[in-house]
Amino acid sequence: MDVRVRDRYIEKGRINLEEVAKATAELPDLAENCEWIDYEKEFLEGRDENDPDDPSAPGQSTSGFAPAPPNPGSLV
After folding, report:
1. Number of Cα atoms under 13 Å in the Cβ half of residue 55
2. Which segments within 1-76 are labelled E, that is strand?
3. I need a surface site. Which of 8, 14, 19, 75 has the fewest CB within 10 A?
4. Rounded to an integer, what distance in angstroms lies between the CA atom of residue 43 and that of residue 41?
5. pTM of the predicted model, to two decimals?
């Protein structure tokens, strides 16, 4: 159950904390089936390939917008 839904149900009195604790305790432990990823390492490796400070690297916009013009004041 999503924690936001759980919190709303608790506030409305549909469920109580004891029921939540019981349901949580009954959940299976699936940690052994997970693949753990070191995101800090992944992001650092990706940043090395696309170093924004490298002038020879092609410009890539992560915002989805075109880059700003060199002199925004000239548009006025």
Report:
1. 0
2. none
3. 75
4. 6
5. 0.40
